[in-house]
Amino acid sequence: MSAVFDPISRFYSSTIGKKILVALTGVLLAVFVLGHMIGNLLVFAGPDAINEYGHMLQTALHGGGVWIARLGLLTALVIHVVATIQLTRANRAARQDKYGRDVAKVSSRASRTMIWSGLTVLAFIVFHLLHFTVRAGFGFDGPAYQTELHGEIVHNVHKMVVDGFSIAPVSAFYVLAMVLLCSHLGHGVASIFQTLGLATHKTWPLFEMLGRAYALLILVGNCSIPVAILLFGFGR
Amino acid sequence: MALLNLHLKVWRQNAGQPGHFQDIDAPEIPDHASFLEMMDIVNERLIAKGEEPVAFDHDCREGICGMCSMTINGMPHGPEKATTTCQLHMRKFRTGDTIWIEPFRARAFPVIKDLVTDRSAFDRIQQAGGFVTVRTGSAAEANNILVGKEVADAAMDAAACIGCGACVAACKNASAMLYVAAKAGQLNTLPQGQPEKTRRTLGMVRQMDHEGFGGCTNQYECEAACPKEISVRWITKLNRDFAAATLKDAFGNGQERGEGGD
Q1: Which of A153, B21, B59, B149 would you label with B100, given CA atoms 20 to 30 Å apart?
Q2: Which candidate in B207, B219, B240 is best for mutational testing of the A interface (most A CBs within 10 A)?
Q3: Does residue B47 sit in the same domain as residue B125?
Q4: Residues A191/B218, Cβ–Cβ less than 8 Å
C-alpha cells in the first residue's frame, strides 16, 4: 500500500505539489465565490426571490445538500490555508538575509501581499459565518425574521441582509474584505493556470486578463449589496 | 571618454559571520569600463592602500559562463535587460551615483566571502537528473532519432541557461524554479530525454526543495532578471511534468517486471 502512498506524501512535501493543491482548492473556492455572489444578487429581485433561494439551499437533498457543500468547502479552505502558510514560511526561510536595496521589477503589489490579503479574507470568512450563517449575537432569529412563502414559514433572508448592512462599520468591513479578495483573486486566478501547467505563450495574456476581470466582477457584484443598502437605502 | 565619480555600498562578509555594507568611494572610473573592470580598479586602489580587496566571482567576462553574479542596486546583474554583470558597462551609470553591490542572497547560496556565494546547490540539482544516460563507445548515428525544428529550437531556448543563479537572487522567495525548469525542460522536450523524464523531473524537484530554495509564487521576477531571457513558461511545463510524473510514479506506467515477488 505504501508503494502508492509514498509518491503522494512526497508530492505534498514538495513545493510544487503543495502549490498544485493550492491551485486546485483555489479553483473550487473561486467558483464558489462566483456562485455565492450570483445567488446573493437575488436580493435585488425582491424579498421572495432571495428567501426562496435561501430556503432551497437549506432544504436541498432533505437538508443534506448544504452540509455536503459546507464540508467540501471547509476541506478545500483548510488545505488552501494550511499549504499556503507552510509555503510562505518556507519561502521566508529561503531568503533570511534581506537585500539592503530591494527592487520589484515586474511583480505586482497583489502578488506580494497574497498571504496578507488571504489571511484578512480568512478572518472575514469567520466573521461572515458568525454574522449570517450562525447568526451569533446579531438577533437575526426569532419570529421577527420569519416570513411566509408559498404557505410555508421560512427564514427572512432579505430582512436579515438589509438589517445587517444597515450598520455602517459592518458594511465597511465587508467592502474592505472584498477589496482584498479582489486583490487576492487578481493574482490567484491567473496563477491557477500557471501552477496547473495550463498556460502557454499564446494563452497567458488571456488568462491574466481573465483573472483581473473575474476579480473585478466579484468586487463590483458583492459590494453592490452593502453599498445599495447603506448608501442608497435599498430595502430600508 | 568621460570619468565617473561613484559611491559604492559594497557587502563585506566572511563565511559564517555576519556581514555589513562598506562605503567605498570610486572616483575617476572610465565610463567604457565594464562593471567588473570597475571592481578591478577599486580593488587595485584598496590593495595599494593596504586594505583587503572585495572578493567577487568572475570568469569568461563575455557573458556565457554564468560565473559573475552580484546584485546591483537591488537587481541581479544590474539594471540592463538580458545582460550579465560582466557585460554591464559603466556608461549606464551617472557620475555621483550611489551603487549598492550585494551578493546573490539565498539560504541555498551561502556567502563564501563578500560577493562570492557557493552555488554548488545547482550542481547537485543537475546530478539529481539533469542528464540523459547514454552508452559509451562508438558514437550513435546522429539521424537515428529525428528531432523537429520547433522542438530543437524550444530545447535550445531552455539550454541557453548559464546557471548563474540570477533567478534565485531576483525571486522574493529565493526559488530556483526557473533554473530547474530550464534544465529539466530542455531534456524533457527532446525525444532523447523521454525515457528518463519521470525520474528526472521528480529527482531534480526533490533536490531543489532539499537544498532549501523557496517555492514559486508566479511573480516572474526571475524572467525579468535572467541574462538569457529564459521564459517562465518553462516553469509552467515543469509544474505540468511534475504532476504527470507523480501520477506515473504512484499509479504505474512504470515497467512491470516479470520476476517473482521480493
Answers
A1: B59
A2: B219
A3: no
A4: yes
Domains and CATH numbers, chain A: 2-93+109-230 (1.20.1300)
- Does one domain contain both B92 and B134? no
Any idea what the Cα angle at residue B244 is, between residues B240 and B248, rounded to 5°?
Answer: 170
Flag whether the pTM goes above 0.90: yes
pLDDT digits (tens, 9 = 90+) for A95-122: 999 999 999 999 999 999 999 999 999 9
Within a 13 Å sphere around the CA of A232, how many CA atoms are in the beta-carbon half?
8
Grid coordinates representing A14 are 514538495
- Count CA atoms closer than 13 A to B223's CA, side-chain side: 17
C-beta of residue A154 within 8 angstroms of C-beta of residue A146: yes
Amino acid making up residue A159: K
**Are B183 and B66 a contacting pair, CB within 8 Å?**
no
Kindly give the parts of chain B with pLDDT less than 70. 253-262
Residue A31 CB-density burial (10 A; 0-12 exposed, 13-18 middle, 19+ buried): exposed
